Amino acid sequence: VSGDYEPIDQEFLDDFATLSSFGATPAGGVDREAGSPADLAQRAWFAQWLTDRGFRVHTDDIGNLFGMLEWVPGAPVVLTGSHLDSQPLGGRYDGAYGVLASAHAAHRLNQKVAAGGWRPSLNLAVVDWFNEEGSRFTPSMMGSSVFTGKLAGSAALATTDAGSVTVAEAMADSLGQPWTTPVQSYAEIHVEQGRILEDTGVTIGLVTATWAAQKFDVVVTGEQSHTGSTVMADRHDALVGAARLVVAVRELAERFADAPLHTSVGRFDVLPNSPVVVPREVRLNIDLRSPDPAAIAAAVDLLRTTIAAVSVEVGVEIDLALSHAWDQQPYPAAGVSLAAAAAQRLGLSHQEMMTIAGHDSTNLKDQVPTVMLFVPSVGGVAHNEGELTADEDCLAGVALLSEVLTDLCSEAPAILR
Ligand SMILES: [Zn+2]
Question: How far away, in angstroms, is 360 Cα from ligand 1 center?
């Protein structure tokens, strides 16, 4: 990049290195699922970082962590953030980059206010949304779903992990009161997790819409028996049924290659998972995504046909239950043009694109005007310890987010409506 801004911010890079030390893995990634000791430790560090710089720290009733700058008493707030939690053996940049970029951008704006160089009309708050990843506790985007009223707080708090620990127990010392300040708008920056920006040599992605997604919990029920003595005709092997489904899900993507359709099975639990036992039950989940909701609907129809056939052929029961879904929906066009103008001012190359992954902004955009920004991911590597975004791209993103937040905080009321 050769943007019109200070290209080196050692303090940001140092803070990012510190953040990456929480739950650090030998292969250069991080492992800090929501509410884990590593997640709680980094939240404590981040809360102290905010306090040290004059932010008022608040934790809400599902564990979202806020840092508020109140410049205009009683005014609504512009929110900016992402998530600090990670997948198991995840990367350093997914979510954490966006939270730290938001914090540094907000701190820069606060310094400008303190120096008398700028008078905002709205207040600004940074947020670390609880459990965006949904790996330990499902569904994903839990904190922002509760915040936006899409998921009941009581249901989220009662959710259990694989060891039967509830969210309420994991977050017992980290829960506070609901957030009550009106939110005027939201801005999030995230690593792309794909390689469109890298392939096109562009620094900034301006997100115009999100792909649609449907996620299913599947239970395949057979009958437990002896792997040696049970004659083949008498077997009801849940694992055979599940394996047929895994292959069918993969083949769905090939049938909708033009849509396109992304499919996978990401979790697979075999019961009793014992060497001399024909499995009685397999639990798995299916994840379908496409920019075209009709393609997902058609794929689900095909999947149901396959399930009916496999049930008969293998002699198992297969239960398919929708667990989480969102539609293909646009981000506000006014926010895209606001961000494009800001990138233009900084001399940053930019292009419009869709987001394939869900983000907390997927929830926020349904409630308030929302801006979603991407910076490049090297090789498109995501949910992997090898995630990487170049320092210069990280810093370009902080500069752009600072500009966008300046615009969002400058105008009232409701700049994007
Ligand atoms: Zn993320």
Answer: 8
Q: Are 377 and 389 in contact (CB under 8 A)?
A: yes
Alpha-carbon gap, residue 252 to 262, rounded angstroms: 9
What would the pLDDT profile of 232-283 be if each residue is shown by its tens digit?
Answer: 999 999 999 999 999 999 999 999 988 899 999 999 999 999 999 999 999 9
235: CB partners within 8 A, 6+ apart: 222, 223, 225, 278, 315
Q: Cα(359) to centroid of ligand 1, in Å? A: 6
Centre of ligand 1 from the C-alpha of residue 94, in Å: 4
Among 404, 197, 210, smallest CA distance to 291 is for 210
Query: How do residues 60-108 score in pLDDT, each as one tens digit?
Result: 999 999 999 999 999 999 999 999 999 999 999 999 999 999 999 999 9
Report CA-CA distances (Å) from 73 to 52, 68, 395.
21, 12, 31
CA 90 – CA 386 distance, rounded (Å): 8
What is the value of pTM for the model shown?
A: 0.90
Helices (H), 152-237: 153-158, 167-170, 196-200
Paired tokens of 240:
């055979």
Contacts of 394 (CB under 8 A, 6+ apart): 12, 13, 16, 97, 101, 375
